[in-house]
Amino acid sequence: MIAIRDLSCRYGTITALDGVNLTAGTGAVLGLIGPNGSGKSTLIACVAGINRDCSGAIALGGVSLASYGRAALARVLAVVFQENHIAFDFTALDVVLMGRSPHLREFQEYGADDLAIARETMTACDCWQLRDRGVNRLSGGERQRVVLARALAQRPRFLLLDEPTSHLDLRHQKEILQIAAARAGTDGLTVIAVLHDLNLAGRYCDRLALLDRGRVVCQGEPSAVLTAPIIEAVYGTTVAVVPHPVTGRPQILA
Amino acid sequence: MANGRRTQIFWLVLAAAAVCGIAIGPSGPPSWGDPQIIALRGFRVLLALCAGAGLAASGASLQAVLGNPLAEPYLLGVSGGAACGAALAIALGLGRGVLGAFAVPVFSFCFGLATIIAVYRLSRVRGRLPGETMILAGVVANAFFSGAIMLLLSLAGRQLQEMVLLMMGSLGAVFTTRTAPALLFAAALTAGGIGWLWLQGRRLNLLALGEPQAASLGVEVESLKRGVFLTSALICAGIVSLAGVIGFVGLIVPHLARMVVGPDNRRLIPASAALGGSLLILSDAAARSAFAWELPVGVVTTMLGVPFFIYLLWRRKRSAG
User: Fold this and answer.
1) Chain A residues 183-202 with a CB less than 8 Å from chain B
2) For residue range A144-171, what is the model confidence (pLDDT) as tens digits?
3) The pTM is what?
């Protein structure tokens, strides 16, 4: 469980987050949605311990974020970022093994168990067959699966996804979210995902939180958040909401 | 595993180069009964080894830290800054005696470190380090320091020869019982520096993912960067104060080594060090025996480095377009 209490963050005169209260439950995916500049990525950076210029309290499984050192945090929390350019031509397997780094002692080499974990997560992300390919020669969808496998190889209890599906086509968008949602269920992961696509958010998230100008406007089940009056008020445009013909989840039509 | 064996090849090459370095010279192979020539060439080989290994290993590490394959002590202006510091120490008359053995490297180090921090700050654009702005900042730093060295040259009297050698990059410093401790000190500094960089290999690899990604994998990114900058400046200062500015070694060598052992810094840093040492020992052997007069080794590495740099730029342009 990730509990966020009264989180605020200011860059100079700009208020990126303004008293955010959120709870993400164990074994579930919390989707963060909202217009550009609403503070979603800042929220992820705060929870990831990368942005330390924030006030308020963040607790991971009841333990304060502030009490974790960098390395200790990396053993329980993994992050998938939006931009994943990788300098130099590491192979996909090299990159996934890097996810084991926080679990190694100083100067310890990757061992057989690290390789076994990398193989397991790469198989789960359908990229084991890409292991010897240079990661920069993979397509966007393949690379993002490798990056997700790397995050899962950290064996985290908390997983943060910052727009993991931008620049991907529909099939790959769905794959990434399906894997994350399945892992949340089987491994008891707590997942927070920033998503741009409201329909994907409605389809794969157990709960949604809608941010606007640094505040949580509304949170709850997708059907409670994705309603025409709420979306129209926050995004400033008219929409129609219809139930998905198969899943019954709310779908936004522009 | 195959890459592990490949790294060993570099050590064999280095050993062969060292033997060549001692055997080759204007006066031919030394007979084993001539310890003076062996000692003189041995010192020279040791200086070439330190310079090549140190510059190549710090080039590889700077490339990892800056996420940019064009980063290198010479192109970033670090060597130029260190040379300017050394020239200043010489111009101030601090280059004499026991004090000189310390004042020159200390001035070199301070100037080199200040340069790398300035270039890094100047070229950082919104948290990223585009190759082009970094090279530009390095060009500006080099222009400034060569101007400053010219100024010192114009004011210099007896120290002129010493300063010219600093700018050209030469392994021809005459080793006597007085300067030998400085060489041994620089060698120890270089060896320690390379060792430290090597131990950072796994963390340096994580930086390839990007700085926030590396931080999310438990790397203290800022302190790692500071450590690499500091170590590179130390290595450069030791080398520059003895051998002057030797360009492009940190660019060419890690690239060649990367082709053989791959991008993993745990193998790349030792492989670069061994290959850099070999390259400089052989370049120096060629430089002092190919012509009737002695060619400064910095000229040789620049002649090799410039076409290589143009090739890298051309390849970047092709992959971008």
Assistant:
1) none
2) 999 999 999 999 999 999 999 887 889 9
3) 0.90
Domain ranges, residue B171: 57-320
- Among candidates A45, A94, A102 on the partner chain, residue whose Cβ is nearest the Cβ of B217: A102
- What ipTM was predicted for this assembly? 0.92
pLDDT at A141 over 80: yes
In a domain, B31, yes or no: no
Assess contact for B130 and A87: CB atoms under 8 A: no
Both structure tokens of B274: 């061994």
Domain assignment present for residue B10? The answer is no
Q: Which residue type does B88 have?
A: L
Closest-CA distance, A109 to chain B, in angstroms, reads 9
Write the pLDDT tens digit of every residue in A21-80.
999 999 999 999 999 989 999 999 999 999 888 899 999 999 999 999 999 999 999 999
Domain CATH for B185? 1.10.3470.10
- Residue B313 domain-assigned (yes or no): yes
The count of domains in chain B is 1
CA distance A63 to A153: 22
Task: Answer yes or no: do B205 and A71 touch at CB < 8 A.
Answer: no
Task: Please answer whether residues B22 and B41 qualify as being in contact, where contact means their C-beta atoms are separated by less than 8 angstroms.
Answer: yes
Q: Is residue B132 part of a domain?
A: yes
Q: Quote the minimal CA–CA distance from A154 to chain B in Å.
A: 8
Tell me if chain B has a CB within 8 Å of the CB of A161: no
Residues in chain B: 321
For B80-111, b/e burial (b = at least 16 CB within 10 A) is bbbbbbbbbbbbeebbeeeebbebbbebbbbb
Closest CA to A32 of A229, A219, A251: A219
Domains for chain A: give ranges and CATH numbers: 2-88+156-253 (3.40.50.300)
